[in-house]
Sequence to fold (154 residues):
Amino acid sequence: MDLSKISDQDLIFRLEKLTRTERKITHFILLHINELESRQLYAGLGFESLYTYLTKGLCYSESAAYRRIQAARLLKTVPEVAEKIESGALNLSQLTQVQKCLKEEKKKGQKVATERVQEILNTLENKSGFESERILALEFNQPVKLGKVFTPTR
Fold:
């Protein structure tokens, strides 16, 4: 596809429309992942786990498969997150970070109420990855990871 002949305005319009479509599709993919997992359909297809099905059967990268599974599980717990995915207020990385924190809390024998999870998700809206990590570290009483500052070289 040659995009070089498209006007600047049309190119921007198309990209914005595609981005909205991508987020809507991501939401639908997460819903399908949840249903596939609940039916354990991956086993009938010869895969030992949902993760293996996503990586080997659907050719997602390992990290992409992991993010989608974690985000899908959080979506199952907090369905309201769907509109935040579609709007772009939250992304898969943030949802994965939240889900990891919730799993850690569960390991400690502590359950986080759904209402509290919703509050945390509201706090994370439109935050960067680093900001999200810092907020979650404070919310879940975890050590804050210090990020490296990279300066572009010429």
In short: The first helix runs from residue 8 to 39. The chain has a mean pLDDT of 93.
